[in-house]
Every structure is written in structure tokens, then in C-alpha cells.
Amino acid sequence: MSSTISPPNFPGLVDSRGAERRFDAHITGCCASRDNSLLAFSTGEGDVILAPRAELKTPDAWVVSQVHDGPALAIAPDVSGDAFLTGGEDCRLKRTSSTRTVEEVARSKRWIEHVTTFSQGKTALIAFASGKEAQLWAGGGSEPLRTFEHASTVSGLAFDGKGKRLAASHYNGLSLWFVQSKDSKPRLLEWKGSHLGVAIHPAGEAVVTAMQENELHGWRLSDGHNMRMSGYPSKIGSMAFTRNGKWLATSGADCVVMWPFFGGGPIGKPPMETPGIPGVNCTRVATHPTQDIVAAGFADGAVLMVDYTSHRVLPVCAAAGGPVSALAFSSDGCVLGYGTEDGRIGALDLTAPD
């Protein structure tokens, strides 16, 4: 795909607004705490690395805790405060706080590969997937509220924007569960093939999955109409809706591919392509929560921020080894974190002066 820029052999924003640190482990995930006071990174060695917002430029102050016996496979902010939830190959769901306190929340018979949380008003929910099961927990609960069974392994989880529905992707489609319903049956949206991840439109208008083939599949939720989005040179490993739901940003090409979800799109509409890096695949995307900005991580370790209305590019960090495997903004948009397969992590305070 087109719309590329020269390879970024330049200093980036991390040099003036943050710092990097290297670890001997694959970085498997990144997110900010619910109160935005911490960035956290999970690793293939089972560690959780905490970077306090006040010390983003002081990497020696970042705290490393051994949390899982084996790789940490998923990370999400807890429903409140400065804690995080992680799932691992040890079949445990763990909670890690800013004080380095680690506690076991739940255990399963299989790896816990997906964790997601929702918190708004009085509603606080945790969901995690283990094999063919997805469990729903109250934020402070000691046992599951519901267990959702599927015919095949759950490959992705996402709450809708109001916390009323939980989408679980799996082989041949996805299941959409109403979390407060007493009905044990989901709304099943079917499409043959392997579905590897899921995203829900912020207003609940559509749901999209990434396929084993180099394409996306979506459903319009008002009537179940199918939407196919193809043309990628590689698999889509990361996707995120923009703040107002107008665009779906995705990896899978040498730029960020953005599908329109307005004016009848994406049906019959071509995607927009942001500037990228020629011949270098985009591996991770993250959308800014308050501005028209998308962050993109690439297979050479570079990270860019792109204003997708003007196509202005801000380099975050230069190419430096392994592919970007984790990328996230804080919910207030003031902090950005990234991690790579070869153990490099970076953290930026985007409110700091140049």
C-alpha cells in the first residue's frame, strides 16, 4: 500500500519527552492504569513492569515484579485506581498494584490469553478468556457472575461502549453476549474461517474481527449485514476505532489502513492510508482518545504518531531492532507506551514541553 515516508533514522519524541529501557524478554502487552498514574508492560518471562507517570524520564525507577510462572499473555487496567490485571500460561489471573502487591484473582484449567475490563459509573466488570470459556466477574467479586461457553477457542474479547455487551471472537464468527441477560444464549454472528481478534464500534453500530486470511470481517449490528474489508499484504494483528468511531485503524500494511465508518462505509468505500515506512509492516496501532491522532508501531521497531486529518507525522522513536508488539495511550491521552519483541520499552509524557 502507498502513502509512505522515508525510513525514520531520526531522533524521536521519546528523546525529549520520555525514556527507553531494555529487558531480556518479549514485551507482550502495554496499558495505562485506570487513574492514568502508571504505565504497565507485561513480558514473556511473566514480569509486569510499572512506569510511574512522574518518573517516565527515569527508567531506573521503573519497577519490575515477577507475577506469572511463565509468560504473561494479556494485560488490562483494573476497574479502578492504579492496579493491573494479567493472564498467563500458568492459568492464573493476577492483580498487580503500584505497591508491587501481587494477588491471585482467579485460576483456570487452561491458559488465560485475553483479559478486558469495563468501568463507568457504578458498573465495573472484568472478563477473561481461557480456552473455549469466557468468564465475567464483577470488579470486586470473588467468583464469576457468568461463564460463557463457546464451540471453539476464544480468540478475542471486547466490551461495548456501555458495558452491556461482551463480544467474543472464535472460529466461524463471534458471539455477542448481553451481560445482564438471564438468557444463556448469545447473539451469534457467523462467517466461516478463523477470527483472531475483535473490536466494537464506540457507539455499538458494528463489530469487526481480524481473520486468519489477510482481511477483516464486520457485521452491522442493526441488521447483521456482513462487511468485508480486504486487500492487506499481511495479517492484521492490531486494530482500534478512533475516538468518535468515524474510522477503524488497522495494522497489516506498510502504513496505517483506516476504514471509514460513516456515510455508509465501509461498505463500498475504500480505506484511507496514512503515511508509513516503505516496505516495513505496521504491527501495532493505538488511537488517541481525544485527538485525531493514531500511533503506529512497525516491524523494525520504529513508532510514529500521525494526525490522520492532515497526515502530519511525528516520529516517536527510530528503528532499533525487533517489531513493536505493544502500544497504548493512557485514557487521558497524555501518556504513550510501547514495547517490542526484543525487549525494548518506551514511555512518553505527551504533556511535557519540547
Automatic annotation (TrEMBL):
Q: Which SMART domains match?
A: WD40
- InterPro entries membership: WD40/YVTN_repeat-like_dom_sf, WD40_repeat_dom_sf, WD40_rpt
The signal peptide annotation in the UniProt record is none
Q: What is this protein called?
A: Anaphase-promoting complex subunit 4 WD40 domain-containing protein
Q: Which PANTHER family match?
A: CANNONBALL-RELATED, TRANSCRIPTION INITIATION FACTOR TFIID
Q: Name one GO biological process term.
A: transcription initiation at RNA polymerase II promoter
Give the originating organism.
Acetobacter nitrogenifigens DSM 23921 = NBRC 105050
